[in-house]
Amino acid sequence: MTITNWTWLFVTITFIIYMIIAVRARAASTGAFYTAGRSIHPVLNGMATGADWMSAASFISMAGLISFMGRDGAMYLMGWTGGYVLLAMLLAPYLRKYGKFTVPEFIGDRYYSQTARIVSLICAIFISFTYVAGQMRGVGVVFSRFLNVPINTGVVIGMCIVFFYAVLGGMKGVTYTQVAQYCILIIAYMVPAIYISIMLTGNPIPALGFGSTISASGAEILQDGSTQGRYLLDVLNSIHNDLGFSEYTSGVRPQIDVIFIVIALMVGTAGLPHVIIRFFTVPRIKDARASAGWALFFIVLLYTTAPAVAAFARTNFIKTIHNVQYEHAPEWIKNWEATGLIAWIDKNGDGVMQYGPGKAIAGKPKYTGQSGPLGQALVANLITESKNEIYIDQDIMVLASPEIARLPNWIIALVAAGGLAAALSTAAGLLLVISASISHDLMKGVLMPSMSEKGELLWARCGAAGAVVIAGLFGIFPPGFVAQVVAFAFGLAAASFFPVIIMGIFSKKTNVYGAMTGMIAGITITTAYIVYFKFINPGANRPANWWFGISPEGFGTIGMLVNFALIYVVSKVTPEPPQEIQQLVERLRYPVERTVGETKISTDARRPY
């Protein structure tokens, strides 16, 4: 069968599975809609958390970024994985013990203020929409290539699917759907990685093949007998040197920026509302820690494979595209060219594709609706000082990798189904956060406290439906590559939620004035920095113009530090929290002894609430 037929088969089967699960696990109460009735087993919750967290950025875009950034791309691996350690140690058990549905509800109660709750729910909605933009963009990329439809049409299809199972099933339906989606995405990621690792190095474990030597079959695939017996990374470094790039294993990004991006991603992970809410779905507090541990295990399977996928894809890509006559170009190039995500413009008129440092064109080519070279349509955007003739969207590297390696059609289609599973699973989790913020925190918590459970559930579903539409618009008009957009969301979470939650748990003297000042200042300064360099003056988005050499992706760390500083200073010079709030924090962090008759009983953090 053709790639398109295989893709339709896999996508249809997986979508049917998602919808069946949504129908069978549909939510009939607000408890089921928000927290799945707190009935999810830690292993299943860990798997669902892995799917919720390993979004289109992890599946589609992260290895693509590493392919183009080399060693610098490791900051995404370190940041996103390290964030889960913070989450498991500092947040998950305490928030689960507190026993509220949402992060804004925790902030509103801890800081004894409806205004603080409103500010935090605005932050939650803003962050979630930023994050969901990357997921819908990923859905569009998959549909545009493998189902032969424009990216925007693919986004609309994804919107319809998410609308069905998120609005109907709530957290209960989404959780079980995410378990299925994790199984699909990890199989789809690992199968081609193992296949390519064996082909290039003879090692069936991609993480080890990444550091192995090129086998005889690998040298034949690369059409270069001199590569046999050499280490894969040495070969890739040599290719980079020959083309004028810096070595793949060298870092060129300012060290301070790498450090700040890693920190922003770490604390952003620990502050993301759609991840935190997952730990409210388990029966007991100790299950929250267990869920975080299982999530790490399931995440590691993909994250230890990503660097290998990046190196394999980069090597195969350059070897199959550079110095090749366009008329003899591999079929994968022409397949992807029709989507506008890869393009060739013949700058010197020799009919040969030349790949090298620098941009081939300014901006991005537009989908033409037909296959064939897009060069003539790109002349107006030509960058003459660069000899590079190839435009390639970084988001296609993982999806195109099986095609570049000439793997069987069914494997190529399987990767497409995995990419959709990754994007849709996270999109559903984010939409539930938005839905809960609207129905539980705004309508029930502020505007209509006497609302019935039935009315709240209706508002939750209406909120999710509206969020789907807005998310689709963000997917059609994304502000950057998938992983870049997601990095912005992590930075915003780091600058707003993380300091307020941490201080709320570990400092009983932190008050509402400090929390609100810090939260507003942190997210404002981070948003302003991102907007300036990404939208107002994108031409200035380079290290020489960044504050202290820190990029928009890493500026969330500055926002976080500003937030912490203002929380501390303002809380010092304003009235202390009420005594009952300080006692609440004591109970949240420490075992509390209570006396029954003459017996002292210790109530510790393992007690279910």
Summarize the structure.
The chain has 609 residues and is mainly alpha-helical. It has 24 helices and six strands. The protein folds into two domains: 3-313 and 407-480, Orthogonal Bundle (Hydantoin permease), CATH 1.10.4160; 342-392, no CATH class.
Mean pLDDT: 81
The shape is globular
Number of domains: 2
**Strand order within the widest sheet?**
1-3
N to C succession of SSEs? HHHHHHHHHHHHHHHEHEEHEHHHHHHHEE
Terminal residue distance: 54 Å
Number of strands: 6
Question: What percent of residues are in strands?
Answer: under 5%
Rg computed from alpha carbons, rounded to a whole number of angstroms: 25 Å
CATH class division of the largest domain: Mainly Alpha
Number of helical segments? 24
CATH architecture of the largest domain: Orthogonal Bundle
Keywords:
two-stranded antiparallel sheet, mainly alpha, disordered C terminus, 2 domains, single chain, 609 residues, Hydantoin permease, globular, 24 helices
Provide an overview of this structure.
This protein has 609 residues and is mainly α. It has 24 helices and 6 strands. Strands 1-3 form a two-stranded antiparallel ribbon. A two-stranded antiparallel ribbon has the order 2-4. The chain has a two-stranded antiparallel sheet with strand order 5-6. The chain has 2 domains: 3-313 and 407-480, Hydantoin permease; 342-392, no CATH class. The radius of gyration is 25 Å and the shape is globular. A hairpin with a 2-residue loop joins strand 5 (592-596) and strand 6 (599-603). The longest helix has 51 residues, at 151-201.
